[in-house]
Amino acid sequence: MIAPQLPTPAGPVPVFPSRKVVMPPVETTGAHVRRRRRGGLIVDLDDTLYPREQFVLGGLAAVARHIAGARAVSADAALTVLIDAYDGEERGRELQALCRRFDLPSDVIPELVTVFRGHRPSLWLRPGVVDTLQRLRRDGWRIVILTNGLPSVQSSKVAALEVARFVDGVLYAEQFALGGKPAPATFQAALAQLNLPARSCICVGDDPICDIRGGRGAGLRTIRISRSGVQVPSRHEADAVIDRFEDVPSAADALLNLVNVDVA
Ligand SMILES: [Mg+2]
Predict the structure, then answer these.
(1) Which CATH superfamily is domain 35-50+123-263 in?
(2) 157, 163 Cβ separation under 8 angstroms
C-alpha cells in the first residue's frame, strides 16, 4: 500500500536535532531555592496594617448609641464627650469621662467595655498594604500576622479587614503568653508557623517595645514603621525604620542580605 503524500512545504524545511530534549533537574538546594524561598515576615496588625483609631472611633460610637438607648442621653452628646476625651488628656479613660459628664454610676463601665469590645468594626487596610503583601508573597516571602489584644477582639478586626487571605497565617499573641508580645514565646509560635529559623525572619511593627525589642529578643531582625509622637532611644531602635508599609520589601531585602552576609 502506498502511503499518502503530504504536500511539500513552500519554504525551507526546519531541521530538528534527533536527540531527546532533556529537562534540567529541579533544584532542591542552592541559590535557586534560596531565591524563591527567601524568608519570613512576622507582621503586627494594629497601626501597622491599618490605623487602630478606626476601631476606637467605631467602638466609641457604639458606646454612644448604647448609652442613648439605655439612659436619657443623646447619642451625639455622648459621642462628643467620648471623642473629646480621646483627643485630649483623658485618652484611655473615655468611659470614665462619659460617666462623670452625665452622672452615670461607675458600675455601668464594665457594660460599656463589653459594648466597645464587642462592636462590629468597619475597618480598612492602609492604602498600598494589599499590593505590598501580594508583592512580598510573589517574591517568596512567607507572612504571618502576630497581633496583641484579646483574641476575640483581634479576630473581629482580622475579619473586618479581610486580610487573612493575603498572608500565610494569623496568630493571636495572647494565646501563647500572658500579655502577648513582647514575650519570646509569641515569636517562637510565629516562627513555628512559618517553619523558618529566626535568622531568616524579620519582625515588622510600630511598637518599639512589643514589636522591636520583642522581635530582637527572639533573634529576629526588625523593621519599625514610624508613628508620629513615638520616640525611640537609639540603642533600642529597629534595624530599619520606614514611613510606609510599601517600603517593607526594599527594607526586608536589605536586612535579609545582611543576615546572609553575617552567617556566611
Ligand atoms: Mg501595633
Answers:
(1) HAD superfamily/HAD-like (3.40.50.1000)
(2) no
